[in-house]
Write a structure and sequence with these properties.
The chain has one helix and eight strands. The chain is mainly β and 133 residues long. The strands form two sheets. It has a four-stranded antiparallel beta sheet with strand order 1-8-3-6, with no helix packed on it. The chain has a four-stranded antiparallel beta sheet with strand order 2-7-4-5, with no helix packed on it. It starts with a helix and ends with a strand.
Length: 133
């Protein structure tokens, strides 16, 4: 193989690698404080019904321990689907104690963030929620 052919072959390999191994950068969008005003009444964490809601690769939910900034995070926070009921554990994905968190990954396909809801043991409990694109 001549030098010219080797260089040409190496350039072809580099071109293929440039196509296959593309860097991906996650974009984290904080949704902020999501409050369960009334215990037993589920709250949707992301109410956008546009295409952006369906393109989420992960949802991060943090349930902070009580602080001087308010809130009533003393009981459990229940993360689940549209049927979540904390008192019966219906539709529950996770039950978080204060200070706990969960990351719900998409599993390779896009996750629809509008299908995730919160419920709590106490009125006024809140979570800090972010979505990852």
């Amino acid at each position: 193989m001549t030098f010219k052919n080797r260089v040409s072959a190496m350039l072809c390999v580099l071109a293929v690698l440039a196509i296959v191994v593309q860097p991906s950068f996650a974009v984290v969008k904080p949704l902020g404080k999501i409050t369960v005003v009334t215990a037993g009444t589920r709250v949707q964490v992301y109410s956008s019904t546009g295409t952006q809601a369906n393109r989420v690769t992960a949802i991060i939910i943090q349930y902070p321990a009580n602080t001087a900034s308010g809130g009533n995070n003393t009981g459990k926070l229940y993360v689940g689907n549209a049927t979540v009921v904390g008192s019966t554990l219906t539709g529950v994905i996770a039950a978080l104690d204060p200070g706990g968190s969960i990351t719900i990954p998409s599993g390779g396909a896009n996750l629809d963030a509008s299908t995730i809801y919160l419920d709590s043991d106490n009125n006024g409990a809140y979570a800090l929620v972010s979505v990852v694109y």
